[in-house]
Specification:
Length: 155
């Protein structure tokens, strides 16, 4: 299970690889990559328990497809093409891939995490170690995926 750092890094790398170049598109990709964890906030708001709803409806392929496609259709995640016109299907696919990356990362246990369950010894220190591990591991993967050349452009 990745931390928000890992989800964001991989989401940004996927967005960039699929042609998202605008700052707004990259910001939407960062939010979209972490969107399935909105259930933690909903759990707190509805039940006072962050884990009550976690990994249920928002961690499914259907959620990734629908949320990502909505972001693509709305133009929040827009992949540029040579003609400068929007391709709604490509944008929807890009959004779904970004949100879907969250679900895939949560399925894999890379890197091996240190327990952060309540009552675990040194819980806060373990949490910090997990965030640093994510920065190193997923940062390296994102660096490998990130296309070379071409800066972000203003839309």
């Amino acid at each position: 299970m990745a931390t928000p750092v890992g989800h964001t890094l991989i989401g940004l790398a996927i967005a960039r690889r699929l042609g998202v170049r605008s700052p707004l598109g990259m910001a939407a990709a960062a939010v979209g990559a972490c969107l399935p964890d909105a259930d933690v906030v909903a759990g707190i708001a509805l039940y006072g328990d962050p884990w009550k709803l976690h990994r249920k409806a928002t961690h499914t392929p259907g959620f990734a497809l629908s949320a990502g496609m909505l972001a693509g259709f709305a133009g929040l995640v827009s992949a540029g093409n040579a003609e400068g016109e929007r391709d709604l299907v490509a944008d929807a696919f890009t959004g779904a891939a970004i949100v879907g990356s969250h679900i895939l990362l949560d399925r894999f246990k890379l890197p091996p995490y240190i327990s952060t369950k309540p009552g675990a010894p040194s819980r806060l220190r373990n949490e910090a170690v997990n965030w640093v591990l994510d920065l190193l591991v997923y940062g390296s993967i994102a660096w490998l995926v990130w296309p070379r050349g071409g800066a972000l452009r203003e839309d």
